[in-house]
Fold this sequence. Notes:
Elements: H1 13-29, H2 32-39, H3 44-52, H4 60-66, H5 70-80, H6 85-92, H7 98-104, H8 108-115, H9 131-138, H10 141-149, H11 164-167, H12 172-180, H13 195-202, H14 205-214, H15 228-234, H16 238-245, H17 252-268, H18 275-285, H19 309-315, H20 319-333, H21 338-354, H22 358-372, H23 379-382, H24 385-393, H25 401-435, H26 444-458, H27 465-481, H28 491-502, H29 506-515, H30 530-537, H31 543-552, H32 567-572, E1 592-594, E2 602-604, H33 607-616
Antiparallel strand pairs: 1-2
Amino acid sequence: MASGPQPEMEFDKLTILHKLTDIFDAIDTGSLHKIEKIFTSFSDDQCSTILNSAIQCWSPLPYAIKKARIDIVQYLLEHSLRQGRETMCDNWRKNHHPLSVALERSNYKLIKIIARNLHDINEILPGCCTPLTKAIKSGDLLVVQLMLRLGADVNVPCLHGTSPLMESTSKIDICRYLIDNNANLNQCDNRGYGALHAAVEKGDVDALEMLVDAGADVRLVGKDGITPLLLSTVKLNMKIFRYLREIPTLIEMERIDAKDAYNAFIVLAGFSSLDYWYETLELRQNGYPKVLWVPDTDVLSSEREFSTTDELDAIRHRPVKLGYQAILVLKRVFERSETIQLRSLIATAVTVKEEGHLQELRVLLDYAQSSVNKLGNMSCVLENTDFITLLFDMLLINRDENERIFFQECALTLFEIVSDATAEKWGTIKEDICKDHHIEDLYFDETIDAFLHMLNSLDHLEILEKESNLFGAVVRKVVEKDPRVDYNQSLLHVVIRFGREKEWNTARLVEVLLKHGANPNSKDYLRHTPLMYALKHASNTEVEKIVYSLMDADCNFGYLCKEGYSAMDFSRWGTLPNIPKQPLDLDSLAIRVIVDNSIPYSGVLKKEIVDLIDSHL
């Protein structure tokens, strides 16, 4: 039992940090006695405060689980329960979740200890998944069996609707076990995709066959109109495509459309085979007509989808014409999936560029841009290799003057596409982000990387005033849509955090974002500001420029992060336990940062920046 706080013992943020460091040391060495001694120095309320505090998202209990110190885990859990089970579980969600850590390490004993003290065994963990789905991700069938014995529901989905069965489709033993335990074979996620779609996406033929044999609906249609068979054409997975098209319950028109689509994707991938198109033409002549799409773009105004073998023969060696045909075919087959149509436009634009049809390229890109404005989900476009290739090619300006200007304008068009995609994506997930602060990881790479890479590249181009205004307007639109300004990494955080790794001009990007409305006082999950990020992550050559830019934008130097420290603490720590000492060299022009994996950031700033911050406090 805690004996209450000693009268002379102060209990402030620095004391908590010291005690956390001592506790982590005790966990590392397995010294339960040392931990008991620390906790008997404080009241129950103060012990709860220490247990709920964290260093780099690690609080004592999950850290003890990470180190597999079972006796210490049981002691810390006993203290945690004194604040009430519901309060304890709420606090667990704020940092690394104890059950998540136990599941990641497949520690059966600790899983049972923690799971039995959960408020709800089916709750959504940080990272948007349930405990059962987390167990499935570990790939350990014994852990999955344990979770079901502990009461996990085999059909409770994750935040985005992914069912446990969908998650298991790349792990055949677990998939079979869930089917045997009455998993819903046709349960859909937020896209309307089921387990068969998931198996196609992961390319697992064995799981696919098992699901079909168990009775999964092969004609299940997603919200975008895509069946598992059509999805196999998008993935260009020949083995799955051949298996699904032979399933007896499909109607013949579904098989014919799938063959048309598969051949279209083959063309867009750069291959010359037209065998499926010839095959479907023969089938259509025997009573399977198709409804032809009337083009509505200038570049395709004279194009019409082929309807005879003679028409196909005439274009089989003309890559641009074949690209146009692919667009027309996919427009017809994937009528409800605008993202698929847009991908075909972009892939065809690559062919058009390579053939030197510059004006047609511009029209295709303009049409692609207008298509983006109609979409609510652009992730599959931004993941498209052809699109990224085209994006980078537009930034190559070692050409003659006319081509340089033309490609520069195309680059701006592509930048608008990327920006609109980013803004649309953020608009669809803003509500989810407000519900779960860990959701950012699900959408980071597919939008932010592309936008910031283009922003970094375009900022170096000598663009005219008109294009410059367009550039600024596009940046402002994305900045205004950024839903991560509270509790998650904003654009500023991401630029500063990954600028050195991505070889961006970080200081210049920070300046551009601030100029167009980025919030200099945005805060991530730990309430760390861009200034704090700069003092930890920015390179020695750029940190001063970044600090000056943030100052000019009126950043708050005295703001305290979740752990109770300000920017000055980030710059001057160096005297805490277990942190190597660093002599202050106030004349140095560089920042020397010392980082230890288990304790907060430390380091010293050069004199000029320290004085500047002091003047603002």
